[in-house]
Prior knowledge:
With 326 residues, this protein is mainly beta. It has one domain. Helices cover 6% and strands 63% of the residues. The protein contains one helix and 16 strands. The protein has a 16-stranded antiparallel β-sheet that branches. The longest helix is centred in the N-terminal third of the chain and has 20 residues, at 26-45. The termini are far apart.
Amino acid sequence: xxxxxxxxxxxxxxxxxxxxxxxxxxxxxxxxxxxxxxxxxxxxxxxxxxxxxxxxxxxxxxxxxxxxxxxxxxxxxxxxxxxxxxxxxxxxxxxxxxxxxxxxxxxxxxxxxxxxxxxxxxxxxxxxxxxxxxxxxxxxxxxxxxxxxxxxxxxxxxxxxxxxxxxxxxxxxxxxxxxxxxxxxxxxxxxxxxxxxxxxxxxxxxxxxxxxxxxxxxxxxxxxxxxxxxxxxxxxxxxxxxxxxxxxxxxxxxxxxxxxxxxxxxxxxxxxxxxxxxxxxxxxxxxxxxxxxxxxxxxxxxxxxxxxxxxxxxxxxxxxxxxxxx
Length: 326
């Protein structure tokens, strides 16, 4: 995926450390969003309602991960060379809960669009990947604190040079949750993601614990984890970790028969309540590629995962609702 025309060739590995390349162009975008959010948040702080968490219905997000290390070559120890990678992700999504049977059954359709830009080393060329994902989940209460949540999704990941059948993906999952107490909920299930390179089973574990209304721990493994608190009515602070990934093919330039990546970010977060359901969230910390592989790259070597840790910054504008009784 992330192999533009000017990727380094098959040079033999040397003892010289890889050049760490960080995209300066991405920094103004993050700081601009941060300053806009703060300028809006501070005047609203005095009138914001003392609420925590809530259910996000929509979000606009920009995320940059920089100085990630890759190994270029046919194998990890032959004709290999280390380079650095920068990723910029922009996504916007919307979900609308629809009651089906009072409070017992709720359908949640969700539409997500993502634009991913990747640049390796000092190259001026970049890969642009578009993702459109439509998901439908249904939460069915079973009584005694039990609930079941089946989910289906369908979409595509492509550079849009030529949309082909192998650019499409789909999946399904089934999760069962139990409200153990008013402050603790547990869940478990499994999912199956299907793309051009075959099916991928994914286990799901859920833990949500709220010992106080202003302190919470939320884990939806393997995708995200967060521990946070609300020291002020208009502010949330905490630590968060996220796992994002994608399987894809490219039909433009370059052409990639099969590719996949998984990126882990972990660091501090802060959310400013603007009032009327709007929030600005800022994250920053370390970023690492836990999986990265490109196969069938036309005109260049395959890409394998390298070691090392980079950094990331994220800014998001969210719209949340807060159920009665919170």
